[in-house]
Automatic annotation (TrEMBL):
Domain Response regulatory: 1-80
Matching PROSITE patterns: OMPR_PHOB (PS51755), RESPONSE_REGULATORY (PS50110)
Sequence intervals crossing the membrane: none
Protein's name in the database: Two component transcriptional regulator, winged helix family
Length: 197
Protein backbone atom coordinates (compact mmCIF):
# COMPACT_ATOMS: atom_id res chain seq x y z
CA UNK A 1 0.00 0.00 0.00
CA UNK A 2 2.92 2.33 0.66
CA UNK A 3 4.23 1.72 -2.87
CA UNK A 4 0.89 2.81 -4.35
CA UNK A 5 1.53 6.33 -3.12
CA UNK A 6 4.74 6.69 -5.15
CA UNK A 7 4.45 4.25 -8.05
CA UNK A 8 1.95 3.16 -10.68
CA UNK A 9 0.64 -0.35 -11.22
CA UNK A 10 -1.32 -2.00 -14.03
CA UNK A 11 -3.23 -4.55 -11.98
CA UNK A 12 -4.00 -5.70 -8.41
CA UNK A 13 -4.29 -9.44 -7.80
CA UNK A 14 -5.50 -10.12 -4.26
CA UNK A 15 -6.39 -13.22 -2.30
CA UNK A 16 -9.91 -13.26 -0.88
CA UNK A 17 -8.22 -13.01 2.52
CA UNK A 18 -4.96 -10.98 2.57
CA UNK A 19 -3.42 -11.66 5.96
CA UNK A 20 -4.96 -9.04 8.21
CA UNK A 21 -7.75 -7.85 5.90
CA UNK A 22 -10.07 -9.16 3.23
CA UNK A 23 -9.67 -8.47 -0.48
CA UNK A 24 -13.05 -6.72 -0.28
CA UNK A 25 -11.46 -4.13 2.05
CA UNK A 26 -8.14 -3.98 0.19
CA UNK A 27 -9.56 -3.07 -3.24
CA UNK A 28 -11.39 0.16 -2.25
CA UNK A 29 -8.35 1.24 -0.21
CA UNK A 30 -6.03 0.66 -3.19
CA UNK A 31 -8.42 2.52 -5.52
CA UNK A 32 -8.39 5.59 -3.25
CA UNK A 33 -4.64 5.78 -3.85
CA UNK A 34 -4.70 4.75 -7.52
CA UNK A 35 -8.16 5.35 -9.07
CA UNK A 36 -9.17 2.98 -11.84
CA UNK A 37 -6.74 0.23 -10.80
CA UNK A 38 -8.06 -3.07 -12.24
CA UNK A 39 -8.41 -5.82 -9.62
CA UNK A 40 -8.77 -9.60 -9.59
CA UNK A 41 -9.60 -11.62 -6.47
CA UNK A 42 -8.41 -15.23 -6.08
CA UNK A 43 -10.71 -17.46 -4.05
CA UNK A 44 -10.55 -21.05 -2.78
CA UNK A 45 -13.86 -22.85 -3.42
CA UNK A 46 -15.90 -19.65 -3.31
CA UNK A 47 -19.57 -19.48 -2.40
CA UNK A 48 -21.77 -17.36 -4.62
CA UNK A 49 -22.16 -14.80 -1.82
CA UNK A 50 -18.37 -14.37 -1.62
CA UNK A 51 -18.09 -13.78 -5.37
CA UNK A 52 -20.98 -11.30 -5.28
CA UNK A 53 -19.41 -9.52 -2.27
CA UNK A 54 -16.04 -9.16 -4.01
CA UNK A 55 -17.60 -7.88 -7.23
CA UNK A 56 -19.69 -5.39 -5.27
CA UNK A 57 -16.55 -4.27 -3.39
CA UNK A 58 -14.98 -3.36 -6.74
CA UNK A 59 -13.27 -6.50 -8.05
CA UNK A 60 -13.32 -6.70 -11.85
CA UNK A 61 -13.02 -10.49 -11.85
CA UNK A 62 -12.89 -13.45 -9.44
CA UNK A 63 -10.87 -16.61 -10.13
CA UNK A 64 -11.20 -19.90 -8.24
CA UNK A 65 -8.07 -21.54 -6.86
CA UNK A 66 -6.20 -23.60 -7.82
CA UNK A 67 -5.55 -21.23 -10.71
CA UNK A 68 -5.05 -22.59 -14.22
CA UNK A 69 -2.18 -20.63 -15.78
CA UNK A 70 -3.45 -20.12 -19.35
CA UNK A 71 -6.93 -19.15 -18.15
CA UNK A 72 -5.53 -16.65 -15.66
CA UNK A 73 -3.25 -15.08 -18.28
CA UNK A 74 -6.19 -14.80 -20.69
CA UNK A 75 -8.34 -13.16 -17.99
CA UNK A 76 -5.52 -10.74 -17.10
CA UNK A 77 -5.02 -9.81 -20.78
CA UNK A 78 -8.77 -9.26 -21.22
CA UNK A 79 -8.97 -7.10 -18.10
CA UNK A 80 -5.92 -5.02 -19.05
CA UNK A 81 -7.30 -4.60 -22.57
CA UNK A 82 -10.59 -3.26 -21.16
CA UNK A 83 -8.65 -0.98 -18.79
CA UNK A 84 -6.59 0.45 -21.67
CA UNK A 85 -3.25 -0.84 -20.36
CA UNK A 86 -0.89 -1.44 -23.26
CA UNK A 87 1.89 -3.99 -22.98
CA UNK A 88 4.40 -5.21 -25.55
CA UNK A 89 3.29 -8.47 -27.13
CA UNK A 90 5.65 -11.38 -27.69
CA UNK A 91 6.22 -10.89 -31.38
CA UNK A 92 9.23 -9.94 -33.46
CA UNK A 93 7.96 -6.67 -34.99
CA UNK A 94 6.04 -3.79 -33.43
CA UNK A 95 4.78 -0.72 -35.29
CA UNK A 96 4.05 2.71 -33.79
CA UNK A 97 3.28 5.31 -36.45
CA UNK A 98 6.47 5.82 -38.48
CA UNK A 99 8.50 3.63 -36.08
CA UNK A 100 8.91 -0.10 -36.71
CA UNK A 101 10.68 -2.14 -33.99
CA UNK A 102 12.51 -5.35 -34.98
CA UNK A 103 13.09 -7.36 -31.78
CA UNK A 104 15.27 -9.96 -33.48
CA UNK A 105 17.88 -7.36 -34.53
CA UNK A 106 17.31 -4.61 -31.90
CA UNK A 107 16.65 -2.25 -34.79
CA UNK A 108 14.16 0.59 -35.20
CA UNK A 109 13.22 1.84 -38.66
CA UNK A 110 11.63 5.25 -39.16
CA UNK A 111 11.40 7.85 -41.95
CA UNK A 112 13.60 5.86 -44.33
CA UNK A 113 16.40 5.04 -41.90
CA UNK A 114 17.27 2.15 -39.59
CA UNK A 115 19.03 2.52 -36.23
CA UNK A 116 20.51 -0.35 -34.21
CA UNK A 117 20.09 0.01 -30.44
CA UNK A 118 21.70 -1.80 -27.55
CA UNK A 119 19.38 -4.41 -25.94
CA UNK A 120 18.71 -2.08 -22.98
CA UNK A 121 18.01 0.90 -25.25
CA UNK A 122 15.70 -1.26 -27.35
CA UNK A 123 13.70 -2.52 -24.32
CA UNK A 124 13.52 1.03 -22.92
CA UNK A 125 12.29 2.47 -26.24
CA UNK A 126 9.76 -0.33 -26.78
CA UNK A 127 8.37 0.15 -23.25
CA UNK A 128 7.97 3.91 -23.86
CA UNK A 129 6.33 3.51 -27.28
CA UNK A 130 4.02 0.75 -26.03
CA UNK A 131 2.86 3.08 -23.25
CA UNK A 132 2.84 6.31 -25.28
CA UNK A 133 0.97 9.11 -23.47
CA UNK A 134 1.17 7.20 -20.19
CA UNK A 135 3.75 7.95 -17.48
CA UNK A 136 6.16 5.06 -16.99
CA UNK A 137 7.71 4.80 -13.52
CA UNK A 138 11.39 4.29 -12.77
CA UNK A 139 10.46 1.03 -11.02
CA UNK A 140 8.72 -0.27 -14.15
CA UNK A 141 11.67 0.76 -16.34
CA UNK A 142 14.17 -0.92 -14.01
CA UNK A 143 12.11 -4.12 -13.92
CA UNK A 144 11.56 -4.23 -17.71
CA UNK A 145 14.91 -2.93 -18.99
CA UNK A 146 17.40 -3.96 -16.30
CA UNK A 147 15.43 -6.85 -14.72
CA UNK A 148 16.04 -5.22 -11.35
CA UNK A 149 13.81 -4.54 -8.37
CA UNK A 150 16.44 -2.28 -6.81
CA UNK A 151 17.30 1.24 -7.87
CA UNK A 152 20.09 2.35 -10.19
CA UNK A 153 21.54 5.82 -10.42
CA UNK A 154 19.24 8.44 -11.96
CA UNK A 155 22.09 9.40 -14.24
CA UNK A 156 21.98 5.95 -15.87
CA UNK A 157 18.31 6.35 -16.82
CA UNK A 158 18.87 9.94 -17.94
CA UNK A 159 21.78 8.85 -20.15
CA UNK A 160 19.70 6.12 -21.81
CA UNK A 161 16.76 8.52 -22.31
CA UNK A 162 19.08 11.12 -23.86
CA UNK A 163 20.50 8.53 -26.27
CA UNK A 164 16.99 7.50 -27.31
CA UNK A 165 16.00 11.13 -27.95
CA UNK A 166 19.02 11.48 -30.23
CA UNK A 167 19.07 8.08 -31.98
CA UNK A 168 15.31 7.95 -32.60
CA UNK A 169 14.94 11.71 -33.24
CA UNK A 170 12.25 12.09 -30.57
CA UNK A 171 11.68 15.82 -30.99
CA UNK A 172 8.56 17.94 -31.52
CA UNK A 173 9.62 18.57 -35.11
CA UNK A 174 9.08 14.84 -35.74
CA UNK A 175 5.88 14.58 -33.71
CA UNK A 176 7.22 13.05 -30.48
CA UNK A 177 8.34 14.34 -27.09
CA UNK A 178 10.13 12.33 -24.38
CA UNK A 179 9.64 14.07 -21.04
CA UNK A 180 11.44 13.41 -17.77
CA UNK A 181 8.93 13.26 -14.90
CA UNK A 182 11.21 14.24 -12.04
CA UNK A 183 10.99 11.91 -9.07
CA UNK A 184 8.80 9.46 -11.03
CA UNK A 185 9.99 8.37 -14.48
CA UNK A 186 9.40 9.25 -18.14
CA UNK A 187 6.56 9.85 -20.57
CA UNK A 188 6.62 9.63 -24.36
CA UNK A 189 3.95 11.69 -26.10
CA UNK A 190 2.78 11.84 -29.71
CA UNK A 191 2.42 15.45 -30.84
CA UNK A 192 0.42 16.85 -33.73
CA UNK A 193 2.52 18.15 -36.60
CA UNK A 194 1.25 21.18 -38.45
CA UNK A 195 1.04 20.98 -42.26
CA UNK A 196 3.84 23.56 -42.55
CA UNK A 197 6.16 21.21 -40.68
Amino acid sequence: MAALEDDTFDLLIAAHWCGDQSGDDLIPHARRLLPGLPAIVLMASPHESEIVGSLQAGADDCISKPVRGPEMLARIDALLRRAGVRRPRNRARHGFGDYLFDSARYQVSFRGQTVTLTPKEFRFALLLFTNASRPVSRARILETVWNLNRDVRSRTLDTHASRLRSKLQLGPEHGWRLTTLYGFGYQLERLPISPAE
